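ingest -> validate -> predict -> emit
validate: passed (alphabet ok, no gaps, 464 aa)
predict: started
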Amino acid sequence: MKKGLKLLFLSVVLSSLLLSMSVFASAADIRSESAFIDFSTVQVYPEPVEPGKDVTIKVNIKNQDELDAHDVKIIPKIVYPFQLKTQEKNWFLGFDLCAQCTRENTYYLLIDNNAESGTYPLIFEIKKGSSKQLQTVNVKVEGVPDVILLTNGSDSISVEPKMPFAVHLLIKNIGTGTARNLKVISGSDNFITSGSNTQFIEELGADKEALITAYFTASDNLEPDVYNLPITLEYRDAVGNDYRYVGNVGVILKNKAELSVKNIKTHPEIIHADDKYDISLRVENTGSGSAKNTAVRIITSAGDSITQYIGQLSKDEDASVLTSLVAKNSDLRRSVINHVTIEVDFDDDLGHHTLNEDLRIEVHPNKRIFWYVVYALVDFVLILLVVAYYFYEHKKEELENRFEEVVEYGLADEFVKKHGGAWQKEHFKGFVRELKSKGFHVDVDRLRRYLEKVRVEHKNKKRH
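emit:
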C-alpha cells in the first residue's frame, strides 16, 4: 500500500513538473516574438549629399530584451531619390539576434541626378516573425551649383581696332544645385564695355544654359595682339553660400593699316607738251598696325604706268615717292588735261586694300613745235617763191628768145612793109595767128609795142 502511494506521488510530481516545463516553454516563445529591437543610425556620409553622388548609411540594431530574437529581417524601402547600390550584410534574408546583442550594417546608395535640395526619408522595415516596426533615416540632399563659362579663351574672336564688337557668352551650370542671383561681370582696361558691365540672371538650374551678349570696343592705344577679356560670374546657392568664377574670352586685335596720300605736288607748275615733269607725294599710315607689301602705281590717261615699291609701312610711319613723266598734248593750239591716277596697294590682317587718288594736270601746247611749224611753212613759202621766180625768169627768157626769133626772121618787118603804117587790128590778129601756126610763142602786147616802134621808125625814115 505504501509502495503504491509512493508511486502515485512520484507520478503526480513528475506530471506537475512536465506541465510546468511546458508552460514555461510556451511563455518563452511568446516573449521572443515580442522582443524589442532598438534601431539607430550610426552615420550618414556625406551630409548633406549632392544629387548624383553616393551616400553611405551605417545603422545599428540591438535586442533590448532578455530573450533571443529569431528570424529578424531588416528591409530598406528604396524609393526616389535613392538607388541601392550594395550593402555589407543581407539582413533582408533574416537572422537571429541574441538577447542584448547588437549588429551593424552599411548601405551604399546613389542619389538621383535630378533630386532637388531637401530632406528625404529612407524607411527601414524591421520584421520579427509576424510583428514588424518601421524606422526612418533622414538624408539631407543639397545641390551645389557650379557655373562656368563655355565661351572661353580657346574660342578666340577676331576684332578690328576702334570698332565695336559683340561677345556671345554661353554660361552653363554643370553643378547639382540651382544658382541664384547670378551676376555676369565683364570688361577690362583694354576693352571698354558698351553700356553696363554687369548683367543679371535670376536663376540657373542644374545642367541649364544661358546665352548673354555683351558689346565692347578696344581702347585706342591698344596694339594688335592676342588678349584675354576677363568674365566674372558671381552667384549663390539655395542656402545662401556665395560662389565666384573667373573665365576669359580670347580676343585677337587685328593689325589694321590706314593709308592716305598727302602733299601731292607737280613740278614745274606750268607744263607744256613733251615736257618732262615730276610728281611728288607722301604715303602716311595713320592706322593701328603695319601695312605690308605697299606699292604705289601711277597711271596716266596717255597709257604710261610707273610702279614704286615701299614694302612695309609701320604705324605712324610715312614714305615719300618721286617719279617723272612726260606730258602729252597733240593739240598745237589749246591746252588739254592729262588724267593721272595714283593707286596705293597694301595688305594687313584684314586682307588686301587699294587706295585711289585722281590728279588733273593741264598741259599747254608745245611752243617749240609751233615755231618749228611756222619756220617750216616760211621755208616752204620761200622755196615756192624761189621756184616761181625761177620759172618766171625762165619763161621770160624763153619769151624773149622767141620774140628775138620773130625779129630775126624779119617777119615783123615784112608785116610792116606789107601793111605800112596803116595796119589795122584785124591785120595784127591775122599776123599773130600766123606766128602761132609756125610754132612761135607770141607775147601779144610786146609784139604790138614792137610793131608800133617799127612803124614809127619807118615813118621817120621816109621823112628824111
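The chain has four domains: 32-141, 147-253, 259-365, 369-463.
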